[in-house]
Write a structure and sequence with these properties.
By secondary structure, the chain is mainly α. 69% of the residues lie in helices and 2% in strands. It has helices at residues 2-14, 22-36, 41-58, 71-85, 93-106, 109-114, 116-126, 137-154, 164-171, and strands at residues 65-66, 69-70. One of its GO terms (biological process) is tubulin complex assembly.
Length: 172
């Protein structure tokens, strides 16, 4: 059911479905975030596929307001929240890291450009073996995948060059 719901959100976003209540997008994002931390990979994958479409359609226009915040402020809050999940070491920490690392990698270029330093550093930190995360190889793998996707999305010329040494070190 969760896979279908995320798939539906992606298609509604692609179809540019008008949203008449400001809390609708928040509800959609809450569902996606809930699915990003799910232990079933197929559910996480559908959430990862839906997220960039929601950002593209409903959070791209800086003139839009969601409650007291603009779309840009909302984007920045969400990216910070997603980056914070990459340091989670709780009970569900591995699945949180796996989902959010891939979600960051799936974000559109306009979002990644705004907070490139934070996203890259958070993903690099997530690739490191720390006490309590020694057995979380899949989370580190997904951080590498997310980092690779960020690099592919941004491409050269966006300031990515200054992070190459850090990224190379993280991959070794």
């Amino acid at each position: 059911m969760r896979q279908a719901a995320c798939h539906c959100l992606a298609k509604l976003s692609l179809a540019r479905t008008p949203v008449h209540k400001e809390d609708t997008v928040d509800e959609w994002l809450n569902l996606i975030e809930e699915c990003l931390s799910h232990e079933v990979q197929a559910i996480r994958e559908r959430a990862i596929e839906a997220l960039p479409h929601v950002f593209e359609q409903y959070l791209k226009d800086d003139n839009l307001h969601y409650g007291n915040v603009t779309a840009k402020q909302k984007r920045m809050q969400l990216v910070e929240k997603y980056c914070n999940q990459l340091s989670n070491t709780g009970v569900n920490g591995q699945f949180l890291r796996m989902g959010y690392a891939r979600a960051l990698g799936a974000l559109p270029k306009f979002v990644l450009t705004e907070q490139m330093q934070l996203v890259i550093q958070s993903l690099i930190d997530c690739t490191k073996v720390t006490e309590g995360t020694q057995t979380w190889a899949e989370a580190r793998r997904d951080a590498v995948v997310g980092l690779t996707e960020v690099c592919q999305t941004l491409g050269l010329g966006c300031g990515l060059e200054r992070h190459v040494c850090e990224m190379r070190t993280a991959l070794l």
